[in-house]
Amino acid sequence: MPDPELDGVRCLLMRGGTSKGAYFLAEDLPADTAARDDLLLRVMGSPDPRQIDGIGGAHPLTSKVAVVAPSQDERADVDYLFLQVMVDRAEVTDRQNCGNILAGIGPFAVERGLHAAGQESTSVRIRMVNSDSYATATFATPGRRVDYAGDLAIDGVPGTAAPVSLEFADTAGSATGALLPTGRAVDVLADGTRVTCVDNGMPSVLLNAADLDVHGTEEPADLEADESLGARVAEIRAEAAGLMGMGDVSRTTVPKVVLLSPPRHGGVIGTRSFLPVTVHTSIGVLGALTVAAAVRVPGSVAHELADLDDARAPGAHMPVEHPTGHLDVTADLTEVGGRLTTASSSVLRTARKLFDGVVFPRP
Fold first, then answer.
1. Which residues is 320 bridged to in the sheet?
2. 34 — phi, psi (to 5°)?
3. Which of 102, 145, 286, 308 would give a disulfide with 201, using CB separation of 3.0 to 4.6 Å?
4. What local confidence, expressed as pLDDT, does residue 338 receive?
5. Is this model's pTM higher than 0.85 or not?
6. How far apart are CA 288 and CA 205, in angstroms?
7. Residue closest to 261 by CA, chosen among 323, 189, 193
């Protein structure tokens, strides 16, 4: 393998949904996990709150990496490994998926020649390695080239771009083994807080914001500045993770804690999502799919707070409200062996190629 410090590493910087990340071919990175993670920390500029000596954006939403390879799975065309590179500490984790970065995987596969483009549009079947689950990305390729220009606007991203349709399979329980990891729609924690533990691609702990004496409509920065709230969220997260069978999560990014509130802008439900400390300026794709699935679970905290008047029919879009707007998703449930699971999930996202070239890690 070439010397990364002298020769650099091929990298495509892309916005995927409301995140931004560095996309790599697996063959361009070290096969050894420790060596790979060390290289990525130096590429992104971690640990440093500004990531000044790397290409990271000094925020969890812009310090992300996708590693892509041809798939040996007959159900997929490419394998996608998501890696969250911590900003302020020397740590890289693969404990979660990222549905926003996923929006760029299909276009990246075409850009790097891993998948042939169709004459007008292309569908790429993707195995999400983190959870061994599957998604299909469909996007425009007029003249067999990825077209990033389009008219779809998504909240949290300025301007418009071409749509990327993401349809999911096998997301329910992808990290924990069940849509409802505890087997219950509601769990009551030691302090009396009612939570719904749910996993439709993103292990999450959902609770009524009012139970923590907040409205659930606050700006993310205001929630982050409330130290007593942060401490309580951390306690809830740790206890709920134990109920979900996830063990010690003190150094992981999952499960997420999501504060819920009644919708205020025509959506199905309001959200504020902890990452787990920083509060998301919008909401992750898989996080929104997980909230939407919980909305359809009778008796859940989400179901109690949701406005389902326009989202009762199977396949109906469910606008999940977040700090900068809303995210339209679908999530339909079915019962298998006496347990609820996800029948189908989908979302429309956009992606855009920002820079394609060679990145040089710090020594």
1. 269, 327
2. -65, -40
3. 286
4. 86
5. yes
6. 12
7. 323
> 7 φ, ψ to 5°?
-100, -15
Taking only the tens place, the pLDDT of each residue in 215-232 is: 999 999 999 999 999 999
CB atoms within 10 A of CB 115: 22
Contact 98, 55 (CB under 8 A): no
Are the beta carbons of 271 and 260 closer than 8 angstroms? yes
Of the candidates 88, 87, 32, the residue with the CA atom closest to the CA atom of residue 65? 87
Contacts of 120 (CB under 8 A, 6+ apart): 140, 141, 142
Q: CA 243, CA 7: separation in Å to the nearest integer?
A: 48
Dihedral over alpha carbons 26, 29, 32, 34 (to 10 degrees): -120
pLDDT tens track for 312-333: 677 788 999 999 999 999 999 9
Which residue is it, tokens 């996608």? Answer: 80
Distance in angstroms (rounded) separating the CA atoms of residues 96 and 65: 12
Please, which residues have CB within 8 angstroms of residue 269's CB and are 6 or more apart in sequence? Answer: 260, 261, 262, 263, 291, 295, 302, 305, 306, 307, 320, 321
Alpha carbon distance, N-terminus to C-terminus of the chain: 17
By three-state DSSP, how is residue 352 classified? strand
DSSP string, 222-260: HHHH-HHHHHHHHHHHHHHHHHTT----TTS--SEEEEE
Cβ atoms 312, 263 nearer than 8 A: no
**In Å, how far are 108, 281, 313, 326 from 285, measured between CA atoms?**
19, 13, 21, 11
Radius of gyration of the chain (CA): 20
User: Could you give the CA distance from residue 240 to residue 95 in angstroms, rounded to a whole number?
Assistant: 17
What is the residue type of 125? R
Which pairing describes strands 19-25 and 64-70: parallel, antiparallel, or unpaired? parallel
